[in-house]
Amino acid sequence: MATIADVARAAGVSPMTVSNVINGHPHVRDSTRAKVLAAMTALDYRVNVAARNLRRGRTGVIGLAVPEVNRPYFAQFAAAIIAAAQRRDLRVSIEQTGATRENELAVLGLSRNRLYDGLILSTVGMGAADTEHLKVPYPVVILGERIFNGPVDHVAMPNAGGARAAVRHLADRGCRRIAMLTGVETTEVGVSELRLTGYRLALQDLGLRYDPGLVQRMDEMSMGAAAERVHAMVTGGLDFDGLFCLTDTAAMGALRALADLAVAVPEDVKVIGFDNIEEGRFLVPSLSTVDPDHQAMAESAVGLLARRIDGGAGHEEFVSRFTVIARESTAV
Amino acid sequence: MATIADVARAAGVSPMTVSNVINGHPHVRDSTRAKVLAAMTALDYRVNVAARNLRRGRTGVIGLAVPEVNRPYFAQFAAAIIAAAQRRDLRVSIEQTGATRENELAVLGLSRNRLYDGLILSTVGMGAADTEHLKVPYPVVILGERIFNGPVDHVAMPNAGGARAAVRHLADRGCRRIAMLTGVETTEVGVSELRLTGYRLALQDLGLRYDPGLVQRMDEMSMGAAAERVHAMVTGGLDFDGLFCLTDTAAMGALRALADLAVAVPEDVKVIGFDNIEEGRFLVPSLSTVDPDHQAMAESAVGLLARRIDGGAGHEEFVSRFTVIARESTAV
DNA sequence: TTGTAGGCGTTATCAC
DNA sequence: GTGATAACGCCTACAA
């Protein structure tokens, strides 16, 4: 529990000099530096981050708010964010919002207590009407579509474009009755709606009729819910030969349900997901998907936030590129 | 950026009274409280956490160091920890160690900067020889076996017991040549060794001969590495009818490799994992596993840490119960 | 019930 | 190249 003052006393210098040594200031005589370093070692000195934060007005911590870390996609994203932050000497504190609007707003409020230097917020429940809430006195990067015109940076996925490509991929492999497994209509520009837009655009491209019966909405994007829904679709006699799932996680559930019902994938139904979670490669059959390049998104989110923390102005938007990854679940 | 002083001025009271209102002290006249609250709202006052931390000597943040959040098991665990911490008004900052000894030690050092009130450390790379490093001036809960006699609490999994039960489960279903997919020998009491102990004990119980050739060690516990290794085992002509995988993640890779080689699961080889990750239920075939009750472990880890933060003494150890979950991969 | 004084540990400023 | 001073915003003790 030694303080700078203790070290200064031991080294026979002033606290300020110790501080200068700690912070690598150039104008310190080598012999002085040596004395100070020796004293620091002897006393096992550690900086008190709270005091430094108070003085500097910064915490060195950024917040990351995601629905739940225990979802492969967000886990992957969180891992990438933490790694990117580490490279910039920032620590990451994670908040779980459960994908609800209230919790997303609560996180914005929390951070106003200067807990974090900045916040990366994955918006799922919030909508355009909540733009006001984004007017907070610290940098925010929204992970999601440009829902808001507020004073925030955005890191977006190519939702519509990726979905469009996924559906085209199914059609290229011969599918004509392509179903989509998506979420409930939350906000007009939520992930579900954007990917649904891509789905519809693809159908148009292909000259296929849009059949609302093929669009299946689920309350919750879990493997279990997806499995149940697909089960119901098949036993209910819905006719489809392709299935585009909103997320890979949902696709995992779908694959399981199809296996239960002895519907062969890809022979009877071809399945494609979205996110490229690591697990997809190892499923049986392995899962075709849209890869939105998390790495680039994470790097960009942290980069934008860091720039803003350092006083950068102007609101930027980053949209990652995507790739369609063809695996067994859509093989011909 | 209003401070307590600003609020006090606006409300016509002293800063101390504002502080009392903020912290819910009882002896404040209602009318005074009302005035203060009004001023706080008007000025949009937010406490400065850095200042409060400095004064209180606490940060309200606990560190959670895991190899990587992007591994289903640790993601699940992290989610549970964060939820448990949230219930106690603690925030969780995550560090990724990559399962290396150096990084685990580095995290211990980091936290000495009073960044966290306490630390939950998942030890993988550290061994008994590192006990010294655990002597840090803040509470630590080790997630892992009682490797150390140091001044720390432990939250342990029933590694040996769970492994023993898993192997017995395979034998009960008719397996006689049971292979184990495990990690490299790191520490004498690492997860790999403990579960291997369970494996050997089970063989003894069953009167089966221990065949070192059936114990397959991998450098890295990933799906990809496991798939490769199992591929090599089969194409190399290794004779086995049961496979106990160190983790469910490894088992996912194993299942994939077996499918590639047209080895039927469970008919030709039965497979069981360890961890009960959520995905296991949805694999094809669904994965039998040992469930170590993460929920209880997480709750207990945060509970122990919170108690220590609040000054509790004495080193406790919590070992969770386990259950063997039988699914398709070990069906008869 | 409310207010005053002081210090938590660090660092920016500016003088020497 | 080094150091004195002051301040970051809050809260514990004590006084009124």
Write the layout of secondary structure elements.
The structure is a homodimer of 332-residue chains.
Chain A: H1 4-11, H2 15-22, H3 30-43, H4 49-56, E1 61-66, H5 72-87, E2 91-96, H6 101-111, E3 118-122, E4 140-143, E5 153-156, H7 159-172, E6 178-183, H8 191-206, E7 215-218, H9 223-235, E8 242-245, H10 248-260, E9 270-272, E10 289-291, H11 294-309, E11 317-319, E12 323-325
Parallel strand pairs in A: 1-2, 1-3, 3-4, 4-5, 5-11, 6-7, 6-8, 8-9
Antiparallel strand pairs in A: 10-12
The structure holds a DNA duplex (16 and 16 nucleotides).
Overview in brief:
With 332 residues, chain A is an alpha/beta fold. Chain A is built from eleven helices and twelve strands.
What does it look like?
The structure is a homodimer of 332-residue chains. Chain A is an alpha/beta fold and 332 residues long. Helices cover 41% and strands 15% of the residues of chain A. The first copy, chain A, contains 11 helices and 12 strands. Chain A has helices at residues 4-11, 15-22, 30-43, 49-56, 72-87, 101-111, 159-172, 191-206, 223-235, 248-260, 294-309, and strands at residues 61-66, 91-96, 118-122, 140-143, 153-156, 178-183, 215-218, 242-245, 270-272, 289-291, 317-319, 323-325. In chain A, the strands form 3 sheets. The first copy, chain A, has a 6-stranded parallel sheet with strand order 2-1-3-4-5-11, with helices on both faces. The mean pLDDT of chain A is 92. Chains A and B meet through helix 4, helix 5, strand 2, helix 9 and helix 10 of A and helix 4, helix 5, strand 2, helix 9 and helix 10 of B. Chain A binds a DNA duplex (16 and 16 nucleotides) through residues 3-5, 13-17, 19-20, 22-23, 27-29, 32, 47-48, 50-57.
